[in-house]
Structures are given as structure tokens and as C-alpha cells.
Write a structure and sequence with these properties.
globular; binds pyridoxal-5'-phosphate; single chain
Length: 454
């Protein structure tokens, strides 16, 4: 029998998160105040986040110890398995060796609990009673609901109204773990009421939901806010993925030439790729790390590196990042987790400095690849994960054409068992090739009046 599954024991759950900032030749530029546009210090974030997470957000320490309580919760599903995709290799008839790290075994079905659990733990330690957040497709809302329940914290989720109605099962998962879920815009916040006054039938957006969740936390001493991607501490929590994968690859007697992950705000990409980039920095290795994004929302491949807001309304600090402009409204593609205008600061700087690469795929190519993957390997990927699968297909074909054996590792960051509507639409021929036009991108960027970067 060929070895297929490379597993680790609970004792092998890593003891530290890896903070890549320590190894970056060019450190990230500071965030700016949304009003004064002057650099802000950590204290500006205190109304929204617990102190320990703020410290991690600005930390340049290479290793940050994972609290025992967090490792204990991780052991409910970690270490996650790493698979050698023998069937897929055969199907693609490629000399490439393909491995994938599977994060869909977590209770909520994706990588997101890796940071949700850590964030809930630190909030609990600092006596926080309630956490608010926004969710689009529902992956983040369900991860945070799961984590808050374990640490006995109230969880309020502002779910984009259109998703709230389209994805009742995601909402019910959150309810099952005890969270309150609101269809955003609501009439419970100033931001929500303002939108509803202008448009009572607003389907909502991630930008609006962020504004509601932030407002709620800013106005209540005992309530904090939590974000599931983009920020430095979130990316760092996810490095548990790549550190496990590194040990598993060693056990398999292999090292990847290419590491691939889908890209929304950067957390699952950072999670898998950063520990391998560390080998590039520390040991002079030359591992290519590729972020896969949708051609409907191509901030890395076609956006600009500039200060921009994290939300639509312009309430958040300005961050130096690759962006399509905070007013960019992506087409309603099924990979809801990748419909975000910006990218994490750390991944943006790494891309700017050519330490990582990015590619874009249209949704049709992604679903073709995802369905082929499911037929070969069994697991049905989340629509977001299909982007990584599409990149792997391209690289495996290239290896075949060039007649070279490459080792490819990718992040299967979640399963698609709650995303069957997307697959239904694909089988019904309703998914069309979609790519934003140069005019659309220009129009969105032309409206930006945020600070440019030298
Ligand atoms: C949220 C999510 C993403 C996108 O977010 P990142 O921060 O870029 O990882 C991708 N895949 C899945 C399954 C998600 O839940």
C-alpha cells in the first residue's frame, strides 16, 4: 500500500506561532489614523481588541508561545492530516508529487478556528463579556461562535443580509454554538439605521457589517471586536498549519518546491506558506509560495500597493496593502471568502518585495478543477479552496510539459459541504467566466484619496 496520510500525534502540536515580521528585510509600514492620516500606536486599537492581541499585532518577536489552554482546544481536531494525492497525480498524469494539508476537519469546517480559539482565549483572560464580528459566507462567524462558546463569551455576528437568507445552515451552526446572528444592516446600530433609511431593501455588504460590529464594540466597555483575516496576529495564529505541514513533509521524506493557497485576506495562505518562507530566509531555500485569487477580485495581481481602509465606510485605520479600492464591489462569485478588496499588510509587503507570487483564476476554471479533485480524492473543497486546486492543476501540467518532477503542497483550507448551492449552479451551467475589466479597476482606484506609498 502506498503511504497516503501523514499524521502527527497531539503531543506534536506546535508550541509556538511563527511571526514572519522578525525575518522580513523590509518591515511593514505603520497603520495611519483614518482622520489625521498620521501613524497610530497600539493604544489606538485598545477600545476594539484585548491588549495581548494588540501586542501580537505589533510584535517583532520571532516566536510567540501558544498558551496551553489554546493547544488543548486545538487537540480537538489538530494536528490536521496531510495527504499525498496519489489519485489526483494519476488523473493528471503528471510527474509532479502533490500533497495537501486538510483544514476541513475542524468543527466549523475550515482553518478559521485556529485564530478564533486564540482570540476568544485572550479576550476571556482580559474579562471581556461579549465579542462582535461580521461574516459574509459564514465561515468566520461559525468559527468564532464555536470558540466563544468554549470560553463562555457571548458572541454577536452581523451576517450580510443576502447570505443570511441564502445560507440558513451556516446561521444555524452559529445558533447551535450559542451565538446571536443578525441580518445586516440591522436597526440596532447607527450605521445600520443610516443604511436602512437610505435603502430599506439593502442586501448588506461586508463593509456595512464591519461598521455595525465595530460600532457595537466601540460603544460598550465589556464588548470587543474580532476579525478573521488580514491583521498580523490573525495571520500569525494560522502558522500552526504550515509548521505541522513542515514536520509532516519531513516525515514523508520530501520538501515542497511550490506551496499554494487560496487568497482572501491572506490568513490561510500565510498559515501554510510562512513557515516554508522561513526556510527561504533562514536556510537559503528557494521554495516558491503562490497565492491564488479570483480574477473577479484580483487585488494581488492587478491592484495597487497603497494605503487604504479595511471597510467600505472608512472607519478603520489606513493600512499599507494591495487593494482594488475600498469602494470596489466584487461580482457575486461563489467563493464568498475571497470577495475582499484588500490584502493583509504582511503578505502585501512580501509580494511587493518579490518573496511571494500571485496568480488569478476565473471561477469556471476553479470549479472544473474542484470537481475533478473531488472525484479523485473524495473531499469536496470549499469554493475558495478550488482556487488553490486550479493553481495546482496548472503547475502539475507545466511539470508534465517540461518533464520535470516537482513537489507541490497546497492548502485545502475547508470543505464545501455547506456550499452545495455553488456546485448546483456549476452543474446547471450557470457559472460564467468572469474577469473584471481594466476600466472597472481604474474607475475604482481613481476614486481613492488615501495616502500613496513613496
Ligand atoms: C475565510 C476563508 C478564506 C479566505 O480567507 P483567508 O484569510 O485569505 O484565508 C478561504 N477559504 C476558506 C475556506 C475560508 O473560510
Amino acid at each position: 500500500m502506498q503511504e497516503r496520510k501523514i499524521t502527527l500525534t497531539e503531543k506534536e502540536i506546535p508550541e509556538n506561532w511563527y511571526n514572519i515580521v522578525a525575518d522580513m528585510p523590509n518591515k511593514p509600514l505603520p497603520p495611519l489614523h483614518p482622520g489625521t492620516k498620521e501613524p497610530i500606536g497600539p493604544e489606538a486599537l485598545a477600545p476594539l481588541f484585548p491588549m495581548e492581541l494588540i501586542k501580537q499585532e505589533v510584535s517583532a518577536e520571532k516566536w510567540v508561545a501558544i498558551p496551553e489552554e489554546v493547544r488543548d482546544v486545538y487537540s480537538m481536531w489538530r494536528p490536521t492530516p496531510l495527504y499525498r494525492a496519489h489519485n489526483l497525480e494519476k488523473m493528471l498524469d503528471t510527474p509532479a508529487k502533490i500533497y495537501y494539508k486538510y483544514e476541513g476537519v475542524s468543527p466549523s469546517g475550515s482553518h478559521k478556528p485556529n485564530t478564533a480559539v486564540a482570540q476568544a482565549f485572550y479576550n476571556k483572560q482580559e474579562g471581556v463579556k461579549r465579542i462582535t464580528t461580521e461574516t459574509g459566507a459564514g465561515q468566520w462567524g461559525s468559527a468564532l461562535s464555536f470558540a466563544c462558546n468554549l470560553f463562555d463569551i457571548e458572541c454577536e455576528v452581523y451576517m450580510v443580509k443576502i447570505s443570511y437568507h441564502q445560507k440558513p445552515y451556516r446561521k444555524l451552526m452559529m445558533n447551535t454554538w450559542g451565538a446571536k446572528v443578525f441580518a445586516s444592516p440591522t436597526d440596532q446600530t447607527d450605521a445600520g439605521r443610516k443604511i436602512l433609511a437610505e435603502n430599506p431593501d439593502s442586501p448588506g455588504s461586508l463593509g456595512i457589517a464591519i461598521s455595525e460590529a465595530v460600532e457595537r464594540a466601540a460603544k460598550d466597555e465589556q464588548t470587543k471586536y474580532s476579525l478573521g483575516s488580514v491583521l498580523n496576529h490573525v495571520l500569525m495564529h494560522q502558522t500552526i498549519i504550515g509548521q505541522e505541514a513542515l514536520v509532516q513533509m519531513e516525515k514523508a521524506g520530501d520538501l515542497p518546491d511550490i506551496v499554494v493557497a487560496p487568497f482572501g485576506g491572506g490568513s490561510n495562505f500565510a498559515g501554510l506558506a510562512f513557515p516554508f518562507l522561513r526556510l527561504n530566509f533562514d536556510e537559503g531555500k528557494n521554495i516558491r509560495c503562490i497565492a491564488s485569487e479570483p480574477s473577479s477580485c484580483p487585488k494581488l495581481t492587478r491592484g495597487i500597493f497603497r494605503y487604504d481602509f479595511g471597510d467600505t465606510v472608512g472607519m478603520t485605520p489606513l493600512l499599507p496593502m494591495y487593494t482594488l479600492g475600498h469602494n470596489f464591489v466584487p461580482a457575486p462569485i461563489h467563493a464568498g471568502g475571497l470577495r475582499y478588496h484588500g490584502a493583509g499588510v504582511v503578505v502585501s509587503q512580501l509580494l511587493k518585495d518579490n518573496y511571494i507570487e500571485a496568480v488569478a483564476h476565473d471561477q469556471l476554471e476553479c470549479f472544473e478543477a474542484g470537481v475533478a479533485f473531488a472525484r479523485a480524492e473524495g473531499i469536496i473543497p470549499a469554493p475558495e479552496a478550488n482556487h488553490a486546486v486550479a493553481t495546482v492543476f496548472r503547475e502539475a501540467k507545466k511539470a508534465k510539459e517540461e518533464g520535470v518532477s516537482k513537489t507541490i503542497l497546497f492548502n485545502l483550507c475547508g470543505h464545501g459541504n455547506f456550499d452545495m448551492k455553488a456546485y448546483e449552479d456549476y452543474f446547471a451551467g450557470k457559472l460564467v467566466k468572469h474577469e473584471v475589466t481594466a476600466e472597472e479597476i481604474q474607475a475604482s482606484l481613481a476614486g481613492l484619496d488615501t495616502p500613496v506609498i513613496g
